[in-house]
Amino acid sequence: MILRYAMFGLVALSATAFGNAALAQSKPLPPASSGAMPSVELTITMDGDKPVCAPAELRLPANTNVELHIISSAGEPVTITAPGQFENANVLHADGDLVHVASEKGYLVKQNGKGTLRIRTLKEGQETYACTSNRNQKAPFEGKLVLTPPAG
């Protein structure tokens, strides 16, 4: 009888511990700095065997929900990356021909794909963003991600 209660207590304790760990991984985002959700288009083309993303300088408001419309005319899959920006916690929604890469560092855009990515941008600053083809990973396109002060 005592052993049964001890096992029940152990199961309850472990369920609580694992439950708390799972909740800690999916903390809700703090409120965005702006109530607006700007829409920005990012296009992908190919120059020979190298992808080219436009705009080369992607300017977005910091700590804001942004809708990124991605349109690729590349005849092969291309992965878009930006340090920290595409982690699960910052992705609000993705649809279309977009696949979240396992490392959470980016999104793969399917061949001639289109999709919408809603993200919460990071804090103000500047990072490099990249577009990389699967066939030519050593020669990615590198652009500039500029996160500006959000609109009041």
CATH architectural designation: Sandwich
CATH class: Mainly Beta
Domain unit count: 1
- Seen as an oligomer or otherwise, the chain set is single chain
- The helicity comes to 10-25%
What structural class do you assign from the helix and strand content?
alpha+beta
Which spans have pLDDT < 50 for at least 5 consecutive residues? 3-24
- CATH topology annotation: Immunoglobulin-like
Number of strands: 11
Reported for the largest beta sheet, the result is: 6 strands, mixed
Q: Percent of residues in beta strands?
A: 35-45%
Mean pLDDT: 85
Helices and strands, in order, run as: HEEEEEEEEEEE
Please count the helical segments.
1
End-to-end C-alpha gap: 64 Å
What is the spatial order of strands in the main beta sheet? 3-11-10-5-8-7
Q: Tell me the radius of gyration.
A: 20 Å
Query: What is the CATH superfamily classification?
Result: Cupredoxins -  blue copper proteins
